[in-house]
Amino acid sequence: MPPDESTRIGDTPPEDMTRSTRDPQSFGGSLNTWLSAQLGAGANPEVTGVSSPEANGMSSETLLFDAAWTEDGVRTQGSFVARVEPDPNDCPVFPFYDLEGQFRLLQLLNERSAVPVPGVRWLELDPEHLGAPFFVMDCVDGRVPPDVLPYTFGSWLTEASEPERRTLQDSSVALLADLHRTDIKGVDTSFLEFDLPGATPLERHLENQRRYYEWVKGPRRHPIIEQTFSWLENHWPTEEGEAVISWGDSRIGNVLYDGFEPAAALDWEMAAMGPRELDVGWMIFLHCFFQELAGTAGMPGLPDFMQPAEVSATYERLSGHATRDLEWYQIYAGLRHAIVMARVHARRVHFGQAEWPEDQDSVIYHRPTLECMLDGSWWD
After folding, report:
1. Which of 143, 104, 92 is nearest to 254 (CA)?
2. Alpha carbon of 31 to those of 46, 85, 326: distances in Å?
3. I want to staple 270 with a disulfide (CB 3.0 to 4.6 A). Which of 57, 127, 249, 302 is the partner?
4. 257 and 325 fall within a common domain
5. Is the pLDDT of residue 6 over 70?
């Protein structure tokens, strides 16, 4: 059960979080020069409208732009998205950005799955052009449930009808079922596997999170994170099942919707091989997080949306796989999100927008939720 009002998760995340010191419009000329080399003589490309989205995302940098060029004597145009490795001086969320791996995964999903993902165009690993590696994919039209302010605070999703929200919920769960049935027979998926100690993909996944935490915490400690690591190790799932392609950041804020159906699944930088429940648990928990933020602000949010039993039943119906140890995976999602939140606060400190409080766990807004999950009261 959720924590009572006296243990609510604290202040809502700030709207003024700096994402980058780079000026998106400054990339126009560089993109134009780079595209000329990609397309060859006579293409005469013209890049316009370079901008960055505001409502979501603070990990890899995203550039939106339009481009026109001549191909076979015909003027061609389109809208595109460039994913750019963040500037290491901007206190990035993650220690490493495998843009080549993301590019390969999107190619794989386009070729072998029913998951709607953007078509990929070019991969550029030479940082000389934009100051960092990047890849370019097609821009897909659609709308996203916003992170800032969270969609539970009032958005097109809260204004939708109950049947419309149920359509979005079920179609989002269907994304996971489609992803997990991706045909990887004969495919080299080593780029999605962690070369770390551990007998199983899940053990290596947890080891990767432990190392991520060590990188994030620096001279500080976050007791709730360390307590959660201990709980997870002492309550290990009885059976992990087969390893599938795990999205890693499987939340509705990473989906473009056409109406209430997915048009494109985005943000694959946390992808890896692992149990199906990694994605199911993350999708459930991340809505729980945003719903708790709404409760903190005195808003109703969407309390009947993305409920664990409904999500699990829908996933089983669509995939033929009954989820196991789902409470464990929701707690693991809470751990992973806590580490990200600690790093996000470090970014705010870096940009002069915050300081470290004496209670360093207070920057993890869902600490009371994790505490209730760990002591078992959340599930009563």
Report:
1. 143
2. 9, 15, 45
3. 249
4. yes
5. no
Question: What pLDDT score was predicted for residue 150?
Answer: 94
Rounded (10°) angle between helices 326-350 and 367-375: 150
Query: What's the pLDDT score for residue 22?
Result: 62
126 is catalytic: no
**In-domain check, residue 19:** no
Neighbours of 214 (CB within 10 A): 10
Concatenated DSSP letters of 340-376: HHHHHHHHHHHTTS----SSGGGGSTTHHHHHHHHHT
Query: Nearest to residue 283, comparing CAs of 114, 373, 169, 155?
Result: 169
Q: CA Rg, the chain, in Å?
A: 21
Domain finish residue from 88, 114, 138: 138
> Where in the sequence is the domain holding 230, given as residue range(s)?
143-379
**159/71 same-domain check:** no
Q: In the chain, how many domains are there?
A: 2
- The residue assigned the tokens 């603070």 is 58
pTM for this prediction = 0.92
Find the CATH number of the domain harbouring 110. 3.30.200.20
pLDDT digits (tens, 9 = 90+) for 136-166: 999 999 999 999 899 999 999 999 999 999 9
Q: Is the bond preceding 99 in cis, omega lying within 30 degrees of 0?
A: no
**142, 170, 378: which is closest to 283 by C-alpha?**
170
What are 261's strand-pairing partners?
258
